[in-house]
Batch of 2 targets.
Target 1
Amino acid sequence: MTLTKPNTGFWVIAVIALIWNIIGVFQFLSRTFLLTDEVKAALPEEQVLFLESIPTWLQVIFAIATISGLLGSILLLARRKTAIALFGISLVCILVQMFYSWLFTDIAQTMGTAEGYVLPLVIIIVAIFLYYYSKGAAQKGWLR
């Protein structure tokens, strides 16, 4: 398939995806490396205990999800087909992370309904969208 020029919507979506995934990486860094004693003191005790109880393997999944999403966004802007695989990896990791939280923790009771259910659903929807959007962009000849 011949490489064709993407429309303006592609660039808007690609930039929004980049911003979204930068926020995701920041959330990972915040929960993993920036959870200082001062930050913990400002949070309710049950939230601190919850955050400290997250298994290391799940933190690794969180890292892979956010970093692969960010790299996928960068490669989407660079119009590379590799973005599809990275968005796919991100999606799988997000699903593992969210379903673990829903099935094996009391996240909604500890963090609240918005952070326990609403935000994870939005994150899943965006990840699904980015995966299929990048596949569609490749089919249209926008990615090489």
Target 2
Amino acid sequence: MKPQVDFYILHTQSRQASARLSCQLVDKAWHQGYRIYIQTHSIAQAQRLDVMLWIFKEESFLPHDIYPDVLSPIQIGYTEQVYEGFDVLINLTEAVPPFFEQFKRIAEIVDDTPMAREAGRNRYRFYKKKGLMLKTHEIHR
């Protein structure tokens, strides 16, 4: 079965919008019983997201860690390697991760900048060519 890909197109000037949306998607997926892998472009971005997941919602606990330190049900990674067994991929990079096909769902977050939009269009075309089911969500904040 091929994964479903959801593109979240952000319309905002907030620099924290994509990280905040990532946290909201993680919270929702975790409470639906999914195991989540978040792909970032660097260790620095992974560390920032790690902090945000701890503080973004006081009443919520999201068991997470930076890959590969501990095998938590929510992992934040920045390399081209990932353990198997995760259900949802949240991609915060400009490229399609090479391991995308092992997930049931993929969330692509596209920031409101010209470069990010173009990279998002390229990822959209890539997934479409692979025959995946694509959905687009416009997010206004």
